[in-house]
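Chain A, query sequence.
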Amino acid sequence: MATNVYPWKENLACVSTYKILVNMQQLSGAKTKFESAADLKLGRLSYFPSTTASPALIEMAAMLITREYSKLLSRDYVIAPQTSGGTWKKLMRAMEAVFADKEKTIRDLAEVVDSQVKFGDE
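Chain A, predicted structure.
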């Protein structure tokens, strides 16, 4: 059974996800270009603990990067819920869950952001 893969393209959701991570210096070691960033696993980014598998530390790291990421996102974009049931709290929880999973990718993060935020190009 085929699954739908979120399209990585030059729209505001994908570009903002990439640029924010670059500005946060999360991709600095990887030297990753936009075109090849989609499938980079979050466990390879700078914020993710590499010396421990402690769920408490991973959860704390995910919470901290979510706060920093959301601050930059809201600074650069007017955040409007994609759906009437969308809230800032729901977006934060969804992003935190993605950031806490080392197997998730930058594409997964962009998909979560795009599902909760209405960007100007939509």
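The chain has a mean pLDDT of 87. Residues 12-116 form one domain.
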